[in-house]
């Protein structure tokens, strides 16, 4: 039995293996998947000396606890949370040495939603379609972690970063999402389009890796009936029959029949990954360039 492994002691509410995802397979009905807060995942990988494509653990709200079988270097980023090693407080947001057999615990997020744990060598589960990411919608990749799961680790490639502190963006107190209207904003009344880009929404507790659901004013349709299913992209803002916008995230379906009123700029989606339920949301219309 290899000593390059990580045993899951407490899986938490939802902890999954994530990397940069599997883009380019939408024609097969396979979403991109991957870390929802991609910059946070890339940063913790860099701190432990991993390449950016190495797989990390993504936790949700209440963290997780793991026990490495050999000494490893780890880094925790994303949503700020308490970190302990065998019950003793340890550093968040920097490289940290954890002895083999010690219990590393990520506590509940103090703000934000998703924390990221990188381990030197990366999580080395078998890739599927070129990615190790868990995809909640299609079921591809490893299953969400459960207590007792043992994850293989790769061999460290380079030495970890030797820095005392690195900047981390704070989880949003207000989520501001720049959108380009269309392709189906004409299916809504002018009053509804104006409400979408001027009224306040909040993040719903029903949000997940598939989509960020909102609560707020229902958007009135100008065109009755439903569309034939058409392609959906990352960041599409789909409006289901209840009229409340849903922002599609990494595990989104690749087709859908509800009209898409707008598409969120991809650079704004990492902040959406860290917006806790109840966070105010504003959609800001931006003209398409070119």
TrEMBL record:
Bilayer-spanning residue ranges: none
Entry's Gene Ontology molecular function annotations: ATP binding; hydrolase activity; transferase activity
Domain Carboxyltransferase, residue spans: 27-289
Keywords noted in UniProt: ATP-binding, Hydrolase, Nucleotide-binding, Transferase
Lineage: superkingdom: Bacteria
Manganese as UniProt keyword: no
Entry keyword annotation includes Magnesium: no
PANTHER family: 5-OXOPROLINASE SUBUNIT C
Name assigned to this protein: Biotin-dependent carboxyltransferase family protein
Organism: Streptomyces phyllanthi
Organism taxonomic ancestry: Bacteria, Bacillati, Actinomycetota, Actinomycetes, Kitasatosporales
